[in-house]
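Late entry, evening session. Most of the bench is empty. Finally got around to the prediction I had been postponing all week. Sequence below, unchanged from the version circulated by S.P.
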Amino acid sequence: MTLDTKRIIVGSLSFLFFASLLLVAYQETSHKRKEKKVSAIITSNNESCVTCHTKDSPALVMEWEESMHAKVGIGCVECHAANEGEIDAWKHEGVYVSALVTPKDCSTCHQKEFDEFSKSHHAKAGEILASLDNILAEKVAGLPHNKADAVNGCWQCHGSIIKFLRNEKGEVLTIGSEHKPVIDPNSWPNSGMGRLNPDGSKGSCHACHSRHAFAASLSRQPENCGKCHMGPDHPQIEVYNESKHGIAYHANKERMALDKSGDWVLGKDYSAAPTCASCHISSYMTPSGEYVGNTHDVGERISWTLRPIISSKLNMVIYHDGYKEDYPDSRALPKIGSMVITKEKIVINEELVTIDVERKVSEIVTWKKRRDNMKGACLNCHNTTYVDNFYKQFDDLVVLYNEKFAIPAKTMMDDLKNDGVLNPNAPFEKEVQWVFWELWHHEGRRARHGASMMGPDYTHWHGMYEVSKHYYNKFLPAVVKAAKEYSESMGKKYQERIDKMMMKEEHLWKKGLSPQEAEALRAMYGDRYDEK
């Protein structure tokens, strides 16, 4: 065989190989072009709904068509169906329906998720209606006849009591030939996490799973949580974005498998970064290869409470009916099997009231166990030394905040009330009460949340720096001012008390640095800014 013949054969084979690659590529792309999107299944029950709403609210129908619900034939009636006689029900096109879809409605298919959520902190978010936060919105920033700040602000995250307009006899007003009940416009629309619904359920599933697509990818992303968890008093989304976790997420979003159906497991389906859901809700893989942790109780893995004036470790008591109660580590735990009177908030006649319920203790989850559960997620990406050392740093920051600022400040405020200087029924009467509020509710929370999620700027500059500055320069002077306004002798008493406190080692810096420290500081500035 001549050299030219060999070249012709090799060239022909190469051409055929290249052509076959092109053919395979063409067939693959052709297949993808012909691949049809799975169509929504429109059942006879929902056909008229879809036909009508395609004209009246087409985007709503388009979102539903994208949902997993639509793919399996779950439509308008399955979610919005109501029973005759229910306060929010009316007969529409021959079927009783309600605009409100509550967690109880969702529990028809999602019982496990409902049971977990209904016992969670999220479900109790509406209980803010009786808190100082709500008083600020309704009283301080509102009018007796206008609660717009609370309605548009607090309640849109925390939830409102769904109320209905009534006539003089107390009967619910209705409109139109279908007698549709009129919801109080101050209570709806509302998708607050702890919304208090007419059927007795608490919460709103679409606070996280936005209607009508209910896409898993949305609820897995940190921005979803950032609707509520942001701002001066709980800046979790800002802290997350600052952290290494947030940076990794935004840089690797396409690697997060956010659209995966079914379970979404850290250490199996994705590894690029954790989101809020990864740490607080979703499954993670254990060293033995098990998938554990999936829950709709977002507080299960939290071992510190970072919300109140003084932080404490949190044990959890679980009762026979599934009800859960956090016990600060300073509170004595009940014995398993014992009967305990618990305080529960429910809605009666469209008002939030507290009732006593006797329950039997079935399980106790210690704060250490809760922390171990959180560590299980951490260990998917970090080793034991890293995780343990992180918690050491986090714990130290919380203890520092507690011991140097929170405990002394709260003790001072309690004593001012006991001495009659502060009126316990007037929480924002004097300057010291405003300063104290921001000291723990804003600045102290920012510091603690910053440390908990590895956000150094929020830990220090937006946190402990402001706590320190305002404690020394605003809070302590405001204490003396309030006491002096009460009487000269009271003012003298608190001034002497503060003077004594300032002689403690942790406060001596106020009198100046040591000569060595001052000289080292001057030398550093001289070198750094060329000020010799």
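Two things to note before I forget:
The radius of gyration is 30 Å.
The first strand starts at residue 90 and ends at 92.
Will write this up properly tomorrow.
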